[in-house]
Amino acid sequence: MSGAGRDFPADARAALEAGQLIEAIKIVRQTHGLDLAEAKDWVERERDAPGAPAPAADHDGDHDLPSAAEAALAGGRMIDAIKIVRAERGLGLKEAKALVDRHIAQSDTPFGHAAPGKLPGILAWVVLIVVLVAGGAWVVFGA
Asked: How many domains in the chain?
């Protein structure tokens, strides 16, 4: 393993050897969830000096999501989670979706199920509507 515990992808190396720099950068971004600048820097260093160390991760791990994205997933809002990951990590749509999918596959909390102590958004709305309807009925029909 090189650098921060990540190997340079073999398919990115093949693309680099074929002179396809952009394709190699895309592969590195998709494989490791790096932003464009980090991936470009690593690919260029690998091109100039094979075996170059991977850039240090500036977050806890390749598969960790921002807390707002995790909260969105807990509420069953996958599209919102992908949008958050794209905005905070500077990833493209495909890379952000792959990162969210990997997180779901490795997560202890199933997709759409809130972590303990958190009420999913839809359930909160249902409870609110039931309370409002009951209150309205009480006011209209009197008690």
From this structure: 2
Backbone angles phi, psi at 60, to 5 degrees: -65, -25
Whether residues 99 and 49 share a domain: the answer is no
In which residue are the tokens 């958004």 written? 121
Listed as own residue / partner, the contacts of 12-21 with beta carbons closer than 8 Å and 24 or more positions apart are 12/43, 12/46, 13/46, 16/43, 16/46, 16/47, 21/47
φ and ψ at residue 2, rounded to 5 degrees: -115, 155
* 28: CB partners within 8 A, 6+ apart: 8, 9, 12, 34, 39, 42, 43
- pTM of the predicted model over 0.85: no
Its domain, for residue 129, covers 67-141
* Cα(90)–Cα(87) distance, integer angstroms: 6
71-126 confidence digits (pLDDT tens): 888 888 889 999 998 888 887 888 888 888 888 877 765 666 555 555 566 777 88
Determine the average pLDDT of the residues in 46-62. Answer: 65
What's the token pair of residue 57?
């991760």
